Amino acid sequence: MAAPTSVATPGPRPLPLAGVVITRNEADRIARCVRSLAEVCAEVWVLDSGSTDATAELARAAGAQVREQAWLGFAAQKNAAIALATQPWVILLDADEWLADGAAERLRALFAGEVERADVWELRRRTHYLGAVLHFGGWGNEKVKRLFRNDLRFKPGHVHEKMDVGGRRVRTSGVRMEHDTARSGAEYRAKLDRYARLFAEQAHAQGRRASPLAPGLHAAAYLLKTVLLRGGFLDGPGAWRYHAEHVRYVRAKYRYLRALGSAAAR
């Protein structure tokens, strides 16, 4: 008598969803990001801007299609990545982010139910900083617009780009994502300094100016709102280092903006 033949059970069908990621020299973390997307997405696109490490090869091995594009700036680069999508919905992650445990099931439930009731769905992001997981201060449950119809785009901007959601329906989902924001303290401080300068340049071009008190006042506001009122201090010493970097960052943004205004007035 012949032995019964085992039949492989097919896995869940992918969702009508394109995962998109922009990269440059992210070999140490791109695979984690892509694998989390490939679990649910019909396609995953990585738009690379000249990596000199194995980012592209590792992304392909994890299930992504990779294209090259010289750096256009944050908003324009993300818009170029979104344009690669052939699915009706897009989910956008940075290379240092990934979908949390249980996110695939929540996405499937969303698409089986109410996904069409909005044009943009916010995901809930939790930040990690050098081994510390942030639960408080607004960084443990941050709402970010990352799941959206494929015709949406980001507004022009140098840094902290914003999606153009004018006239669109925005709702919040229960889908969670993780964000491992730093490889080292020095790298993170350098990144925040770049962002501070980009913010100042953009704000100055828009006609904004900073008073002599602005750096200190904005830094104090961060401490009051994030660390005290929202309980950021409850996450312990690892989180305190994170908040110290952000106080420094907020102060730098307005110090650079004031410097640009002073130079223009001469």
UniProtKB/TrEMBL annotation:
Tell me which residues make up the Glycosyltransferase 2-like domain.
Answer: 20-111
Recorded GO terms, molecular function? glycosyltransferase activity
Q: Name one Pfam family in it.
A: Glycos_transf_2
Q: What class of enzyme is it?
A: transferase
Task: Establish whether keyword Transferase is in the entry.
Answer: yes
UniProt keywords (A-Z) are:
Glycosyltransferase, Transferase
Enzyme Commission code(s) on record: 2.4.1.-
Q: Which family does it belong to?
A: Belongs to the glycosyltransferase 2 family. WaaE/KdtX subfamily.
Protein name stated in the entry: (Heptosyl)LPS beta-1,4-glucosyltransferase
Q: Which organism is it from?
A: Dokdonella fugitiva
